[in-house]
User: Which sequence fits this backbone?
């Protein structure tokens, strides 16, 4: 009996009570939302339990950028990673494993969000959203990877400002927050082409407009990279700005191709604007 009740609680029923206007009742929406949230939370808890057994590997992956930065500094700068408080190690343990579980289960809980939103979209909106879903995830992961590879250089620059007579004590909690923010900045920045193409598909941003304002896009990208990157060195900024400029260029090419296809499918394609109407 208890098992049946639990299954009923987690169930996401495809058939709902539909009103006279063809819309689903609010209670059915809330029931479906509850089921999907609980499924996502359950998957995260299971992944968290598994991640607890791989804490050493997760810690090594997160700590590697700092180790590389410290090795590059050598004996010129004295730096040491620390952890504060009696409960600090336990908090660190849970924080790293919880974040790892969130990343690992992201395809599943993103699918739950997608499945909840998709029935409410029109056919053309579903097409655009599929484009977003197909490219957004891989581009985000590429951005995170680029951020992870450039992070040691940024840490080296920042820690290198430490005076010779001082020891730089890096509190691991602050370092972890810094790492997460940096990776998020790189990951989200690589989503720009997806949004540009979606705007083009909606007809709000033709490819010629992207080309017309290309210099301003480039200036804006470099300004954003200079503000968003954690270090003051130009190398980290270039590692973010140059791929973004290349992705904007690819977006312009794709947008122009899509515009040509739209024009070819138009019933007025090939007609001169000075040609009189037969009516």
Assistant:
């Amino acid at each position: 009996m208890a098992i049946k009740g639990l299954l009923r609680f987690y169930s996401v029923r495809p058939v709902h009570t539909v009103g006279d206007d063809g819309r689903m009742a609010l209670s059915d929406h809330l029931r479906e939302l509850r089921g999907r949230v609980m499924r996502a939370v359950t998957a995260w808890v299971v992944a968290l339990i598994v991640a607890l057994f791989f804490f050493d590997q997760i810690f090594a992956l997160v700590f590697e950028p700092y180790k590389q930065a410290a090795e590059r500094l050598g004996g010129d700068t004295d730096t040491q990673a620390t952890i504060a408080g009696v409960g600090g190690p336990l908090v660190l343990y849970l924080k790293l494993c919880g974040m790892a579980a969130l990343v690992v289960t992201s395809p599943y809980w993103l699918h739950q969000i997608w499945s909840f939103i998709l029935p409410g979209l029109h056919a053309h909106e579903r097409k655009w959203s599929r484009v977003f879903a197909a490219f957004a995830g891989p581009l985000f992961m590429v951005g995170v990877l680029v951020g992870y590879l450039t992070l040691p250089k940024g840490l080296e620059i920042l820690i290198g400002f430490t005076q010779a007579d001082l020891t730089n004590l890096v509190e691991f909690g602050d370092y972890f927050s810094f790492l997460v923010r940096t990776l998020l900045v790189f990951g989200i920045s690589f989503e720009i082409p997806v949004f540009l193409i979606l705007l083009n598909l909606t007809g709000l941003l033709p490819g010629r407009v992207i080309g017309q304002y290309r210099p301003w896009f480039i200036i804006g990208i470099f300004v954003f990279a200079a503000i968003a990157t954690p270090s003051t060195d130009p190398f980290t900024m270039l590692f973010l700005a140059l791929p973004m400029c290349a992705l904007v260029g690819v977006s312009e090419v794709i947008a122009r191709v899509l515009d040509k296809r739209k024009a070819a499918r138009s019933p007025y394609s090939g007609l001169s604007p000075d040609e009189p109407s037969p009516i």
